[in-house]
Design brief:
There is one protein chain. It contains twelve helices and 13 strands. Helix 1 packs across helix 3 and helix 4 crosses helix 5.
């Protein structure tokens, strides 16, 4: 019989869940006195069936939480991406054949920074322990949120840079990471409204206000002279107004009814809670340290939005040497294969946390975004990843395809893949506005 190593396909937690479901559905029994070896033999005999059942149960759970479709409002109240212009799917695997533990962490936030239809997506690939990756997964988005709120007019690339630097500093101060560190790939999706020149009150507008104020003073003098005439005219107007009030009230009621019906019809037609105007543009901001990547699919072509900070990069090598470090066997001081990271406090003067940042305006040609650790990119090019999941509507299924591909290509690292599906219909709503 061909032996299957279950750990290379299913994380330990999923193995436990599969075993319980198999006992209930198939009637197979494991005696209370069974030893650990008996359980292992049972898993190996039924591994194929367990994997099939795991995939089925996960799909059913996702469908139950997601609801029938994004256009259907029923049953979707608990789904975080209901009526948003993006959807997220994540697949991760410890890759137990080569790795003793899972050191990757991922985070995503819908309606990030309390703004409708904003999104935050992040992957953290830990090394020498999971402490730094876990801390970043729990705290980096909060640091960025505080930075955005306090410096709202700042370019978001600067917000990201400051958030990375602050997180790196806090990791050292709090001493929560030990000797661990992590690479990071972060993307923020948001809407920005273009303000026309002069709308915020420029010099010409102030001059107009002053001129109008002078005219108002002159008008007040004229009003004083005509006060008596105005009083008589007002009395006549009041008599006429009483007869018109009832007719106007009926007209207003009809207008309110028509407005309510129009708004109801509009909400039914659009699948999104946030409908952009022609003055809105959809922006994607990214930041990364290390070799975790962000790749955008634009019209079927892969567009990398990150930079690999590896010890093989000539510019990073020069920076390390200029900072007093040495490169041994393509590693910083003979230890680290990445030249930028969060954590790694024992060589912070060399391995810095300053990220590479980008800003990209999205359009209807942008289909999806891939964030993944080097467990995928070590065995897969950007374009290969895009080609494999092009046309796959479900982001969870898409991320699973890429994860399984990396396993089949014998990657030796933990694998985490996040796919952000962009709903291009939102641009049609924008054009029709």
């Amino acid at each position: 019989m061909r032996r299957i190593n279950v750990d290379t396909v299913v994380p330990p937690v999923q193995i436990s869940n599969c075993m319980i479901m198999t006992q209930v559905e198939t009637g197979d029994k494991i005696q209370k006195s069974s030893t650990g070896q008996d359980v292992v033999r049972f898993l190996k005999r039924h591994s194929t069936d367990l994997l099939r059942r795991s995939d089925t149960s996960v799909d059913k759970a996702r469908e139950a939480s997601k609801g029938p479709s994004k256009d259907n409002e029923k049953g979707e109240e608990s789904y975080p991406f209901n009526r948003l212009s993006f959807d997220v799917g994540v697949t991760e695997n410890k890759n137990g054949h080569y790795r003793q533990s899972m050191e990757d962490v991922h985070t995503y936030v819908a309606n990030f920074a309390e703004r409708l239809d904003w999104g935050y997506f992040a992957i953290f690939d830990g090394h020498a322990g999971k402490q730094t990756a876990r801390w970043c997964g729990s705290n980096l988005h909060n640091i960025l949120y505080d930075n955005i709120v306090s410096k709202e007019s700042l370019d978001l690339r600067e917000n990201l840079n400051e958030a990375f630097q602050e997180a790196d500093s806090k990791i050292g101060q709090l001493n929560v990471a030990g000797s661990s560190g992590c690479t990071a790939a972060v993307a923020v999706l948001r809407w920005e409204e273009e303000i026309e020149e002069g709308e915020n009150g420029d010099v010409e507008a102030e001059a107009e206000v002053e001129q109008k104020a002078e005219q108002d003073v002159e008008a007040e003098a004229e009003v004083e002279q005509k006060t008596e005439q105005d009083v008589e005219a007002a009395a006549e107007v009041e008599d006429e107004a009483e007869g018109e009030d009832e007719a106007e009230g009926e007209d207003e009621a009809e207008d309110e009814t028509e407005t309510g019906e129009t708004q109801k019809d509009y909400n039914t037609l659009t699948p999104f809670d946030f409908v952009p105007t022609k003055r809105h543009k959809r922006m994607l901001y990214t930041a990364n340290v290390g070799d975790s990547r962000v790749v955008l699919c634009r019209n079927g072509t892969a567009k990398r939005l990150s930079y690999d900070h590896k010890s093989t990069d000539i510019w990073e090598q020069q920076r390390i040497v200029n900072s007093g470090g040495i490169m041994l066997k393509n590693r910083v001081n003979g230890v680290l294969a990445v030249t930028r990271s969060l954590g790694d406090c024992y060589m912070k003067n060399l391995v810095i946390g300053s990220p590479y940042t980008t800003a990209t305006e999205l359009n209807s040609e942008d289909e999806f975004l891939i964030l993944a650790c080097d467990g995928l990119w070590d065995v897969c090019t950007d374009q290969e990843a895009v080609d494999m999941i092009k046309g796959v509507e479900d982001p969870k299924k898409a991320s699973s395809i890429l994860c399984k591909y990396a396993l089949n290509k014998i990657t030796t690292d933990n694998i985490t893949v996040m796919v952000v599906k962009l709903d291009t219909r939102v641009f049609q709503c924008k054009d029709n506005e």
